[in-house]
Please model this.
Amino acid sequence: MIGCPGCGSRLVFDIASQKMKCSYCGQLYPVAQVSKKSRDADESIMENNELMQVTVFTCSQCGAEIVADSDEAVTWCSYCGSPATLQSRLSSIRRPDAVIPFKIDKEECVSRYRAIAKKQIYAPSALLKQGKAESFRGIYMPFWSYDFTRGGAYRFPGTKTETFGDEQITTKYLATGRLESHYEGLAHDASLSFEDDVSEKIVPFMQMDSVDFDECYLNGFYANAADQNEQEYRRKMLGTENDLIIAEAKKEFADIGLQEREAKAQLSDESAYLIETKSQLAMYPVWFLSYRRGDRVSYGTVNGQTGKVYADFPASPYKYLLFSLITAVPVFLILNFLLTAMPAFVLFVAVTCGFIVSTMFKREVKELFLKQCHISYGKKTRNIDVKVLIGSIGSCIGILIGILAYIVPIIISGLSTGGLSMESETVYLIVSAIFLLFFIIRFFTMRGRYMSLTGIHLNLTNALFIVIGIISVVMFAARPATDWIYYAISFAAAGAVAFSVTSLIHGYNMLSSVKPKQFRRSGGDDNA
Amino acid sequence: MRKYLLFLCVLAAILLTGCGTHQKPANRGNIQISDTANLFSYDDLAELYVACEGLTEYGNVGIYTTNITLHTKTSLIASSTYDSWFGTSSGFLFVIDMSNREIYVETDGYIGDAVTPAKARSIADNVYKLASKGDYAGCAKKAVNQAKDLLNGYRIAEPMKYASNAVIAVLLGLLINFIVLRMLNRKKEVSVKELTDANRGSATFNGRNVTVVTRHVTVIRHSGGGGSRGGFGGGGGHHSHGGGHRF
Model:
């Protein structure tokens, strides 16, 4: 504990003044002044300046570790939200090299979070209630900050096409010269407890506020110790630096139509360009909120320097259904003005909705898979599993065929009858058969590794769609005259679609939460 | 912007044309009943004439039954029969097609304004059960009476419409809300600009030397475009609309 030079009470870092403030007398002291006195007085300071002694609190429920002032009463775990007793121990951790102090205070953090939270109409009430946002905690997160220096000859190709009158001239260029670049402060979080998905959304931190590390900045806040070495993210951040260089290159070589992919491939060759890599451990400020549901946790985080908010809001199935029913009322009224649908059309709509939900669910499951692999959906990364990429392309083709399946038979039907008609069972039969084919393909292609992600939801949903598809095809082929058969099947199909939507919500909630890595650590209590 | 305005104008013109209303005919219409499928008794025919009488003040009224297999849709049979019987004048035609086992309501003109295709479908849906039971005369009579109700400003029961729309509305409600949910929680990736602003550094491309490797010239041939030619067709039929139901 760092004491007040005046009254001896605890000093904490005051965000508003960016000075140390006495929690009792309110006196303000510059950080440098307090730091010097503290160093002179503190006998516990280690001779080796690379290490520092801290009190580490370990959550007895999830096993997460957090660093706090030894006097600070830690009453609940920031990572799993459990009001558990945390065991403390003195430990030596690597002393960070730099720190960016908190600039956004809790009040500002809460107001920024609330501005986003108030739009979340589907979020569980427990997450939105007034007191929840107050449980934000200021935590210094460890980040590896990389500086890269590059130099070397470049050979960037470019292609430009111009049209002059009746002539189209395509010119291929080759730009040569010497690249020199230096970027500082490309940061990646160094803590296993801090999910990469979350940390990557609240960066960047402005390097201009970075100062040499001093323990004073940590007073009054929590901190997390680094448990990943600097080599872990070096290559990834080199890729980020590549993006920055390419952005510059695009501006520089706009006149020759720089071929980005080739330029990027060249820069990926480390041996040709990389001169120097420096890394330092830095502590960056993050306001942190956790919301636990079962074994999964959703996080709300606010960048403590820039105020950038990243928050995951799971959806409450009850709220979702309620809003769906509320939405259905105006839709019903509008439909009554526009449409007098035959019962067969209702079944056709249900099958179509099934196809849409199935496509969404497939995308969601893949997103979940990519999240597990720490790859953003749609982001072109070299590490993307080829099968996943092929699957995504297949999905796009599927949607295209689905749209064509809707349009082509309608046009054919229109041409044969002399007018476009949506009420032909032949059209419904063709389209439903195509959808059924998709359902069957999906059932067999989405098994295996995706199964473990969503459990029974995936198989059950796909199986339901196959049943709906088969029944629809039979119905449209048999063309029963009585309405009630259509209605019975339509209601059943609508029920199946509604069930599938709950699977979608389940998948969405998995996407907007994580099973903290520390739950999987030995010592963490999975049943907590 | 111009294209957008033009599109809006065309759309408005189409809508206005579609919403055009017809004048109530000055003279009473004719009644025409052709029972080629032999579905009606003499008593049925007499009752049907009486029922149709009430509708003639709005236009022509026809009932047509057929059992000839023409491999033609009932809607086409109804449309061609309407054309040959009533041309483009206001009218109501009820068709019982025994070969397709389908009933169909075809309307046009002043009657068509009240008995729209949607209402025609509702009428067909309200009466098809009688046809299923073999009460063809009762079926036709009820269809005529429901059309009369609509023309007299009354409402007819449309359980099919409301049940269908309720199911579709719930399905759309579920989908719309899921899309809204995903949109509300869309996460933006960190942009290169954000990173450039936050981090210190720069990249310079010294000694830039650009050489032309190849230059390829393509002459664009403007195709003449196939002008379309076409003659005027024969006289058009009535602007048919209607709705049917199998039984």
In short: The longest helix of chain A spans residues 386-417. The longest strand of chain A covers residues 137-164.
